[in-house]
Every structure is written in C-alpha cells, then in structure tokens.
Write a structure and sequence with these properties.
Largest sheet: 4 strands, antiparallel
Strand content: 5-15%
Structural class: alpha+beta
Number of helices: 4
Number of strands: 6
C-alpha cells in the first residue's frame, strides 16, 4: 500500500530479480520480463479469486487427488505418498513405469517417471472428472474401472496434520475482497 501524487491510497507492486538492475540495452536475457509476467499473473489470479476462492480451488484439488489415490488403490496399485495435496507417488508393483507412461501418452497424459516401477501424478485446478476417468482407464489396461467417481468421493475424508494447518490470515487486504465471486 502506498500513496499516489494526490495523497490518496494506492496499490503498488514492486518486483525485482537478479538482472533488473542492468540497463535494458545491456541485458543478455529476458529473465526479468518472464519473472515479472509470472508475478503479475499470480497476483491477478489471487485478486480475482480472493482467499475464499483459493480455498475452494484447493479443497477441490485435494478431493480429486484423494479420489485418484483411492481409485488407484482399488485397481491394485499402492500410493506411497503419506500426506498429500495435489501430487501422489504410485508404486506400480510388477508393472513397469514405461508401460504405464506409454499408455498415458496415447491419451495425451503426462506422468513423472520416478524409477522403473514408480510414477508421480499431479493434479491442478484444470483437472476434471473426465480426466480421472481417463487416468483410471490407463491404470486398468484401457478398461473402465468397476467403480464410479461418486462412489470414491463418498469415501474420501480430507484430513491433514495440524502442523500443516495455516494459522494466519492470507490475502487480507481489501483488494482481494473487491471482485464479485
């Protein structure tokens, strides 16, 4: 929060990266520009959604990740991630990561190969129910699973260690409350 030339309250965003002090004509990369763009996008995302919107997005992502974990366990895989939010690590047992990744790539899905029999999967706010169904098809040899997303969702209890709970307010400035939700 700052003041404009007439003394009125004004919002100011200050960004600096390691090259920002170099004169434009002498800069050898666009790191500053790229980082400033990302910072502005993150700020606008936070302003647009506000704290309640971000909590809602986070709860949805956590629920979808829980559904994915529960479904993979029902298909016979072991989720080796203890506490998770949006990313799980899956032990494929005797199946090879290369085999699962090849099947996933055919559906335009990306996984992280951790080792020969372990992969990582991350979800985000763009993940839809159809995406989970596609994931279950990949892990079920191209066949539909014998369960529904709704069935799995009813079994999910979202918990996390108290030590990970946020204790302070965030996005408390009025600008984060100004857009209609």
């Amino acid at each position: 929060m700052s003041r404009d030339s007439r003394g009125r309250p004004a919002l100011r965003l200050s960004l600096q990266t390691r090259e920002q002090h170099i004169r434009r004509e002498k800069a050898t990369s666009n790191v500053c520009t790229a980082q400033a763009l990302l910072a502005n996008m993150a700020a606008l995302y936070a302003v647009y959604h506000g704290p309640d919107g971000l909590k809602k997005i986070a709860a949805r992502i956590r629920l979808l990740t829980g559904i994915l974990a529960k479904g993979l366990e029902r298909l016979g895989f072991r989720v080796v991630t203890g506490t998770f939010f949006d990313t799980i690590r899956v032990d494929l047992g005797k199946k090879s990561a290369a085999e699962i990744i090849k099947s996933a790539e055919a559906r335009r899905i990306n996984f992280r190969a951790i080792d020969a029999h372990t992969i990582g999967i991350s979800l985000d706010e763009t993940t839809m129910e159809k995406d989970l169904i596609d994931l279950f098809h990949v892990f079920n040899g191209g066949n539909p699973p014998a369960f529904t997303i709704a069935e799995l969702a009813s079994q999910i209890e979202i918990t996390y260690p108290v030590s990970l709970a946020r204790a302070s307010a965030f996005l408390a400035h009025p600008v984060f409350q100004s857009l209609p939700q």
